[in-house]
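Entry for the shared binder. Reason: the reviewer on the internal report wants the predicted structure included alongside the sequence.
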Amino acid sequence: MINIVLFGKPGAGKGTQAEFLKEKYNLVHLSTGDIFRHNIKNGTELGKTAKAIIDRGDLVPDEITTNMLKDAVDQNPNANGFLFDGYPRTIAQAEALDQILADKNSSNTATIALEADDEILVQRLLERGKTSGRADDQDEEKIRNRYQEYNEKTAPLIDYYTAQGKFHAVNGIGSIAEITERLSNVIDNL
């Protein structure tokens, strides 16, 4: 079983690349963003809570996110592996993911970060916001707040996964095909 954590700031291209990687490696793609949007669209209690938090540009608390992700993993008992997109975002979530996978007699194979300059990413998100309908992609202040949250809470995961020998950085600037090739080279050499 191969389990990949796809890591990077909002707008780095995780969702786009996940579509290619899930097909190529026959992985179940679990995007916390997609899970949240599904709950928001359907007006669930979790969705209402998540929407209020996301609309402020903040991250949803670990416990809510982790329980949602565990349920998604449990719903795929015959998976060949998972591609985690948007999770973990904190050390506590990383530890929880390690436990979720250990309970399945598995582990995180690698964490791959798509790296790109903030200014490029802000422009990507503002462009995406023109068609996505996502309020958090239409306001530069909220985008920058998400990056501050990332730097404070998520960037420490680099050290966490580096200490495990599982962290790999990939240049996230270029054509979609170029970035997919860079990611595939990392995965193929695990």
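Summary line for the report: Residues 119 and 144 are 10 Å apart (CA to CA).
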